[in-house]
Design a protein that fits this description.
By secondary structure, this protein is mostly helical. The chain has nine helices and no strands.
Length: 207
């Protein structure tokens, strides 16, 4: 069991290290508004991952490659990321206040960040495939043990994202990036648009 846990935890952590839409949303929010505001996105991302984990654990994961549900998820995620990327590319680029907020603009609410993080996680087809594939490899493992693995992974997602938000939202980091907000937002928007195009291209290629 110890070896299996290390395998599951290792594979999951490597997936966390791969930057995706969630990572860029957390980084941008932490730079603009501090880690406390970004924590809402972190919780939303963890909840979204938890839902996919629960579905995979319960054996209800209908989201498989080439399935209509997976295709729908791909296109919904692609449109959502394209919208976010377009919004960032056309952002006003308001300067960052050193205390972690925006000069002259109220920060978004914690609940708004939670909803954004939840949408980002749920509309990421890679999350659905990763957990469905991982739990298919654990088919012979006791259900209670699988549930413990799932709880660990939700906690790992939340802990890692909060760590990223805290590191990026540190005062010294904010001070260093304060003069480059416009470039950061353009770069983030461009990355999200590229991810959106990649998801859409993959969906077309699999048809």
């Amino acid at each position: 069991m110890a070896e299996q846990f290390l395998m599951v935890a290792g594979a999951h952590f490597l997936a966390l290290l791969s930057p995706g839409p969630d990572f860029f949303l957390i980084v941008r929010t932490a730079l603009l508004h501090g880690w406390r505001r970004a924590s809402g996105i972190c919780v939303g991302v963890a909840l979204g991952n938890g839902l996919f984990i629960t579905l995979a654990w319960a054996g209800l994961s209908a989201i498989q490659p080439d399935s209509p549900a997976f295709t729908l998820l791909q296109w919904a995620g692609s449109l959502y990321l394209a919208w976010l990327g377009w919004q960032l590319l056309h952002s006003s680029g308001t300067s960052i206040a050193v205390d972690g907020g925006l000069n002259g603009a109220p920060p978004p609410g914690w609940g708004q960040g939670l909803r954004m993080g939840l949408a980002s996680a749920l509309l990421n087809p890679k999350n659905a495939l990763f957990y469905a594939s991982l739990f298919s490899l654990l088919a012979g493992t006791q259900r209670s043990v699988q549930a413990l693995y799932g709880a660990w992974m939700v906690g790992a997602v939340l802990g890692w994202d909060l760590l990223v938000a805290a590191a990026v939202g540190h005062r010294r980091v904010v001070e260093r990036f304060a003069r480059h907000l416009r470039s950061i937002e353009r770069a983030t928007g461009a990355v999200l648009l590229l991810i959106a195009v990649g998801v859409a291209t993959q969906s077309l290629a699999s048809r």
